[in-house]
């Protein structure tokens, strides 16, 4: 029960919707009816229109991120605010929003120092969504958007132009923003720079698109799959290297006058590709890690090489984005025809097709499958 100020006690409403759950490690997902509560203070109820199938969801299913099963999967989403709780001012019912998983707090030490994109205390909904038997669900990245309705912190909703198709807008909620931001925000690619991107899935191709937007003139795409290298060209790669057949470091140096690139972006999350990125950069160049490693991975580099090559070794969290700043700007670039978000959408599927979409992702057949609700 909830009591509004000066009013009689009223019942807290809840909603039953279909959703995609990961119930145990390495187990196929299931589609179940779950219960979603009405929003409380600081929360928003969002009717999901579309949600991309991201590799992070597969990591959750396989236990690569945590073991707080059952998980409510899905986080790369856009939809319409259905209702908001008390004291919410960021959004209102009817707003078209992209969901983000870094709702900044505004008061932690990073926020106070003017670096809110590094916020150390990001917000999620306080209430839990549950299975039909009352078991609390862990929402993937605090969102859980493979569902007709989801409950999030109001700060996780970023209002954008409602004329944007939800199937492309939602992609900014994770993978595309991570790649674009790795190039533009973290790597700070500039006019005339040379860039190499290792791994040409959705995140890597977004990094390529970001490098092109920033004015890079040489953009080298590296992958082991010729099909992915073909995709990379459509996003602006000027050169491609299949690292099954050639040494990418030698090829990149040959393409850059023997020097290496100004910015090397690793979008795989593996030690061997990170080493390639490290040695493929110019002196005083930058390496950006945006691919997500698994917990058991380790990296060994000669410390003298780290010292003598100079430059910067960076990790990119969510593309160092600030959703309220970056999402509307990127949507405007899309509407101007300068950011080909629709090219990331390989297929549109239903909520019952997520497990099959994971298989297509693992086989490298798609950039993004998008669930349309």
Automatic annotation (TrEMBL):
Please name the Pfam families in this protein's record. ADH_N, ADH_zinc_N
Q: Which domain of life is it from?
A: Bacteria
Sorted alphabetically, the keyword list is: Metal-binding, Oxidoreductase, Zinc
Report if keyword Cytoplasm is assigned: no
Q: Which GO terms describe its molecular function?
A: oxidoreductase activity; zinc ion binding
Entry-linked CDD domains: Zn_ADH_class_III
Ranges for the Enoyl reductase (ER) domain? 30-373
Looking up InterPro entries in the UniProt record yields:
ADH-like_C, ADH-like_N, ADH_Zn_CS, ER, GroES-like_sf, MycoS_dep_FDH, NAD(P)-bd_dom_sf
Needed cofactors? Zn(2+)
Q: Which NCBIfam families match?
A: mycoS_dep_FDH
Give the family per the record.
Belongs to the zinc-containing alcohol dehydrogenase family.
Name recorded for this polypeptide: Oxidoreductase
The species is Actinocatenispora sera
């Amino acid at each position: 029960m909830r009591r509004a100020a000066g009013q009689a006690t009223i019942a807290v409403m809840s909603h039953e919707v279909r959703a995609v759950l990961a119930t145990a490690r390495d187990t196929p997902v299931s589609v179940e009816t779950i219960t979603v509560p009405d929003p409380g203070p600081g929360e928003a109820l969002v009717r999901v229109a579309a949600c991309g199938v991201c590799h992070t969801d597969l990591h959750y299913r396989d236990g690569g991120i945590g073991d707080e099963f059952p998980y409510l999967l899905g986080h790369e989403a856009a939809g319409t605010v259905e209702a908001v709780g008390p004291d919410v001012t960021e959004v209102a019912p009817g707003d078209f929003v992209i969901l983000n998983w870094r709702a900044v707090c505004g008061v932690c030490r990073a926020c106070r120092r003017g670096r809110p994109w590094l916020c150390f205390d990001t917000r999620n909904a306080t209430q839990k969504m549950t299975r039909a038997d009352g078991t609390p669900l862990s929402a993937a990245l605090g969102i859980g958007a493979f569902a007709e309705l989801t409950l999030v912190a109001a700060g996780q909703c970023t209002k954008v132009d409602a004329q944007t198709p939800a199937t492309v807008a939602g992609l900014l909620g994770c993978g595309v923003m991570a790649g674009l931001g790795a190039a533009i925000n973290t790597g700070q690619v500039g006019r005339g720079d040379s860039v190499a991107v290792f791994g040409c899935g959705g995140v890597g191709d977004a990094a390529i698109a970001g490098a092109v937007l920033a004015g890079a003139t040489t953009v080298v795409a590296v992958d082991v799959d010729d099909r992915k290298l073909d995709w990379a060209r459509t996003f602006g790669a000027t050169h491609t290297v299949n690292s099954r057949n050639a040494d990418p470091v030698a090829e990149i140096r040959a393409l850059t006058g023997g020097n290496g690139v100004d910015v090397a972006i690793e979008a795989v999350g593996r030690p061997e590709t990170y080493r390639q990125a490290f040695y493929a950069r110019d002196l005083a160049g930058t390496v950006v890690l945006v691919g997500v490693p698994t917990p058991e991975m380790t990296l060994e580099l000669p410390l003298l090489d780290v010292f003598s090559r100079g430059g910067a070794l960076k990790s990119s969290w969510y593309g160092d984005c600030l959703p309220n700043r970056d999402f509307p700007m990127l949507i405007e670039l899309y509407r101007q025809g300068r950011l080909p978000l629709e090219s990331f959408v390989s297929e549109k599927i239903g909520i019952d097709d997520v497990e099959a979409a994971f298989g297509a992702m693992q086989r490298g057949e798609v950039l993004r499958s998008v669930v349309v609700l």
